[in-house]
Structure prediction request, 602 residues.
Amino acid sequence: MENENWLYSDRVKEHFINPRNILLNDQEFDYHARGMVGNVMCGDQMVMYIKVDPEKLTITDCKWKTYGCASAIASTSVLSEMVKGMTLEKAYSLTPKDILRELGGLPDRKIHCSVLGDKALRAAIDDYYMKHGMSDKVKTDLKSKLICECQQINQEDIEEAVLEGVRNFKQLQEKTKISTGCGKCEPEAKEILKKYINKYFSD
Amino acid sequence: MNKKIIYLDNNATTPIHPEVAEFMIDNINEYGNPSSLHTLGRRARALIEQSRQQIASFINARAEEIIFVGSGSEGNNTVLQSIACSSLRCGFDHCNKRKIITTSIEHPCIVETSKCLKDKGIEVIYLPVDRYGKIDLNYLEDNLDEKVGLVSVMMANNEIGTIQDIQRISELVHHKNALMHTDAVQAVGKIPVDVRKLGVDFLTLSGHKIYGPKGIGALYVSSQAHYCPLIRGGHQERNRRAGTENTLGIVGLGKAIEKRSEEMELDFNRISNLRNLLKQGIEKNIEDVHFNGHPEDCLYNTLNVSFSGAEGESILLYLDLEGIEVSTGSACSSGSLEPSYVILATGLDELWAHSSIRFSLGRENTEQDIVFVIDRLKQVIKKVRSMSTIYHKGKCNGK
Prediction:
């Protein structure tokens, strides 16, 4: 949906006007785990709080707060409805594409803002795993895996670059200087680049 | 849904003045090429020259010092690029003048062109500003040496409205034999602009910021100043800007200028009052705000406010849903979030920049509009802050 009137797709607009499961400042919520991502200095931050059924390992309730833009608000609102009753494992594997499908799509330039919700959710699930002796299930290490030793570029840097518009290896190099040292990481970097473009932008 | 729109984004562009629209429609069939010698050509030429004279009179220039260009950005590009021209045809000896001075709060068309000049080997100095957006004159003096070919300082800032002392700056610049340019796109038509008094060599203005049409601007070039065209290959504009003239745009610009000269003073009083009403309404009803820009030397129509803890784009879009149109210093585009470099230059941090909203008023706004805006703004800020991760931490009890 490359419609410039994106805000007025009924579903986005509706979730933006009435965001679900927001934890308002004067409300209380007894949560089991919490995940925070983003940085207010970069203009966006998201906190996700979850309650978990310890037997079934399902999410029974979730709340969130944000300092973020309209698409972050709408997409996290949709996400918060999707995950209730979902197993931690299933929730962990949700991708921005799943959320966008539910939301009816967003313009490419807005996808960057809409990934905050699922990232915060994964951080909250990791937090739950850590607190309940299941640290073996935590997968966050993957994100910070160093790909290019010469330029100190990790997997997450490649993901960020894709979200900011990078669509081929040349652009990735211009942005991050990846594989410009010894060059041995190039095949892996290309592989990961392809994975993220596919994850966020292919249909 | 034909909701009433309250347009408070007049620094981005303005609605066309009804009399300008009428005049343009009256002349829409003047298709003659102004360079043609026959009747139709001469008629188009007369319209263009009338407009040129109107603009010249308005800024106290001579008609032959006005060049029509396609936009304010084109005017600014033309002036800056001329400094890097090393063509022998140019007739200007730049060998010892390979340095320009500009500011950290210019419009992107100056900022980006300066970067390009730097790549071409020109030294570029960006003057810092104080917390109100005023440039540091001492810093200017310290950097003004015989190598400086051009100094470009915007007269009034589009985002925060701060007005610079161009007259004083021109004096300093001319004292060192450099040329002085001012981007007066936001100033012309709002505050008095007199090129002789200001002492500038170049000045840029634009049609669509003064209730005129888009796609037309004008460049004042002092008859004493060196000039090098950006667009070559035609005798138009006395060889200074090639391309068949945009007759209709020029006609509209002339009329817009005429209307400004009639209405400027009245607007000044009326819109100043509306802006004060808005400012007081915000101060009275909303806590934790910061007003950006200079408390006195500021465009009378511009109010830039940062609302602590509330993200700008969501404020903008919630206001949009109420029919209120503003802009923000938190640009969520092309992938990443870029805070306003103008607000950062005044020393505020990214968070304040991401929380900033610009209200720029215009001739169509009424007191009733402003009362409505204050009421809705109060609700929107409350809503955005209530979901904010950083404004009053929510009471959460982790188990």
User: Anything to note?
Assistant: The longest strand of chain A covers residues 44-53.
